[in-house]
What we know:
Layout: E1 2-8, H1 11-16, E2 20-25, H2 28-36, H3 40-47, E3 50-53, E4 56-57, E5 73-77
Parallel strand pairs: 1-5
Antiparallel strand pairs: 1-2, 3-4, 3-5
Helix pairs in contact: 2-3
Amino acid sequence: MARGRIRYWAAAKEAAGVAEEPFEAADLAELVAKVTAGREALAVVARRSSFLVDGNPVGTRAHGTIALPDGATVEVLPPFAGG
């Protein structure tokens, strides 16, 4: 089980009510499940967000296959409008 920080940007930050928080999770799927439990607005945003783990894009890989190293920083990036 890794410990790290999850950072929320834009709509994810608004839905989470915080800019970042600590986590304990083995993989990205577990982390997303934990941080969205009881936070429906965040769950909605997370479903359409992109994720970075230590600056590396997760892309379309299944979240359960993304192991989180100890000390990881996970960033939640909702779709951005504008140009």
